[in-house]
Amino acid sequence: MAQVAAQTMDVTSIKSLAESPALSSVPSAYAFNMNRNDEADPNDPEFAIPIVDMSLLTSESPDQRSKIIQDLVKICQEWGFFIAINHGVPESLMKAMIDACHGFFSLPDEEKEEFKSGNDVLEMFKYGTSYNLALDKVLLWRDFFKVRVHPEFYSLYKPACFSEVSMEFSKRTREVALEIIRAISESLGLEPNYIHDAMNMDRGIQMLAANYYPPCPQPEHAIGIPHHTDHGLVTLLIQNEMNGLQVEHNGKWLTVNGPANGFFVNLADQMQILTNGKYKSVMHRATVNNKATRISIAVPHGPSVDTIIAPAPELLEKECQAPKYIGMNYKEYIQLQQSSKNYMKSTFDHILA
After folding, report:
1. Residues of the chain below pLDDT 50
2. Are 286 and 245 in contact (CB under 8 A)?
3. 289-337 tens-digit pLDDT
4. How far apart, in Å, are the Cα atoms of 55 and each of 50, 85, 148, 168, 335?
5. pLDDT digit string, tens, across residues 11-31
6. Cβ partners under 8 Å of residue 276, min gap 6
């Protein structure tokens, strides 16, 4: 065991480490003590995750759409996340995307190495393990890749099916995200295209980010991704049959367990800034297990990199409020969030007005 622990800083992937026959406990570099006493009871109705039926947003009935818009006000203020169903993305495509990601992570380490790059989150694509090996105080029990799919579409070229599947999946998830953003705009009393136009979403950043969490011998002593918020506007997420995503609600951590054909949708930092704190960016984390590999695919959507995000003047006037946050270029915000000063901390503290 000591030999395995000594080698962990040199591992090229958590997959190869987890598959080591000598591994029977979590190496010290990965030691992260999870507090499981603050987890919500999944059977408690207080923690029943809201469901949004997307078919009602596109319904020809104005009353049905109006009802969902009103529901979104309460959901975005009190929860910051929901599960979207009847969104129009085929379940077969969602499964094909998970399978394609599994195919990539199953490639030999030396084949995946060529996709490694620097630590700029906006690069065309990047692959790695943990989060930022130069920054991490605790190494993470995960491998990942990120591919930028909008405004320009990039793709991994292997496995062979990846490009075709990821292009269709990215296009369809973008349609869902933009429909959600239009509905959120209306829920704020703004024009349907207000957020889209103000955030320059025609040039907005969309990423395809996949995470691979292999079985862990001591899941209570490791973490997939520690608590954090996302830096964009909204994120859509799917996962294979293994749960592990937890979101914070009313001081408790709630494990997300939604339908296989649903998208988990969470609000992110730029939405909180734009709404002057009315709608909250949700804190979430990824836990690991000792039973089977978990794969999650997150599709964050954000403004264009040069957009300066600040509380919407129309909302400030409507609510008779002063701005709580200073305006900041989206690219600069991302760089601030990714910096060492914000390791496992809130970026909002640095932009308070």
Report:
1. 1-9
2. yes
3. 999 999 999 999 999 999 999 999 999 999 889 999 999 999 999 988 8
4. 15, 8, 28, 20, 37
5. 678 999 999 998 999 999 999
6. 311, 312, 315, 316, 319, 321, 323, 324, 325
- Residues near 183 by Cβ (< 8 Å), separated by ≥ 6? 57, 68, 69, 72, 192
Token pair listed for 233 = 């506007």
Encode the chain in three state secondary structure: CHHHHHHHHHCCCHHHHHCCCCCCCCCHHHCCCCCHHHECCCCCHHHCCCEEEHHHHCCCCHHHHHHHHHHHHHHHHHCCEEEEECCCCCHHHHHHHHHHHHHHHCCCHHHHHHHCCCCCCCCCEEEEECCCCCCCCCCCCCEEEEEEEECCCCCCCCCCCHHHHHHHHHHHHHHHHHHHHHHHHHHCCCCCCHHHHHCCHHHCCEEEEEEEECCCCCHHHCCCEEEECCCCCEEEEEECCCCCEEEEECCEEEECCCCCCCEEEEECHHHHHHCCCCCCCCCEEECCCCCCCEEEEEEEECCCCCCEECCCHHHHHHHCCCCCECCEEHHHHHHHHHCHHHCCCCHHHHCEC
């039926």: which residue's tokens?
53
Chain center to CA of 191? 26
Radius of gyration of the chain (CA): 20
**Position 66, amino acid:** S
Q: Which structural domains are found in the chain, ordered by start?
A: 29-350 (2.60.120.330)
Residue 282: C-alpha distances to residues 68, 81, 140, 272, 275 (Å)? 20, 7, 21, 9, 14
Cα of first residue to Cα of last residue in the chain, in angstroms, is 51
